[in-house]
Design a protein that fits this description.
single chain, mainly alpha, two-stranded parallel ribbon, 2 strands, 1% strand, globular
Length: 392
Amino acid sequence: MSTLQAETQHRPLAEVRKSLRIGWYRCPIEPATLRRLMQRSDLQGWLQAGGHLLLFLATGTLTYLLFANGLWLGFALALFAHGTVGAFFKGLATHELGHGTVFRSKWLNRAFLRLFGVIAWHNHHIYAVSHTYHHRYTLYPDGDRELVLPQNPMLKLIDLFQLFVFLVWRGHSGLIPVVVHTVKIATGNFNTSSTFGTQDDTWVADIFADLPKERRKAINWARLTLLFHVCVIAVAIAMQWWLLPVLVTLTGFLGKGWSLIVGLPMHCGLRDNVPDFRKCVRSITLDPISTFLYWRMNWHTEHHMYAGVPCYNLKKLYREIAADMPRPRTLAGAWREMRDTWRRQQQDPGYQFDTPVPQRTAAAPATDNGSDELTDSIGDLAPETLATAERT
């Protein structure tokens, strides 16, 4: 059985921060080259964030026009496209903006993070703390419960229908679980599974156990999110704009299937408790449109290895360290690998796929290559109160 699955008792995270030190292996790269790749650009940020928002507005406008003219087949296709574009707001747009590496100007990072987040029902205050642990302790169950292994890539027919039509209830990401989660947080009840990964009902409460200021911020954001969507519905009723809540409030639950198909391979079926990102994270190749919507996070191993590098420079980073990296899988190849792994796990619960790495480093000890502020950077993700707590 996977270590993550078997884990039932967890140490306080304040204790984990003091005792768990992981010497991550990072592929060697010249500091000057890494520093250049870590440069942020407002122009690149506008192309990525502004382009995604513009595409969202375009599909929404097209959907409305087809609806208004009674062109129902075109309306259905446009609504599916709109939902697909909006589904990548949560956990993708908000993920990279949460790292603070998209724009050079911090206020632009914050503005787009909040805009995408409130539309997508994403609480960036919860995510900032949880995702910091995910990066520091990737797939080490003591410190990372944002992702719980094993993940099941074998989708049932009802799951496929919900994912590609309207996601009402599936795990933690359906409309009902997300609304319930937001209401719980807004009322100060943190005994709830997160809406971006684990279904461990203690994780959200645990990450805020010694961070009361961040807890209060999460509560306030949940209340603001609920207020925003109540206002959207109220305006729709008052103005008889019946499509408005569908295009805004429900957009993250329509046509969500493609975001799951390209997103699940990040860690599914891979090894836990191993200090080598090449073995616990998977990179894949995607077509240009999916790469754009996915915010280049298909280069996910590179992102974990050097998280301070903006998403638009991750492919360049791969080229710099390619000789020391496994070749990225295709999307179809990644799914075959995951499904084969899942089938083997039904007979051998302890089985995990061990990604082959280049021979010249396969036998090398997993040590942090010159660990310093540059290589360890995860951008501006960690809240200051957590960063302070980590240093004490």
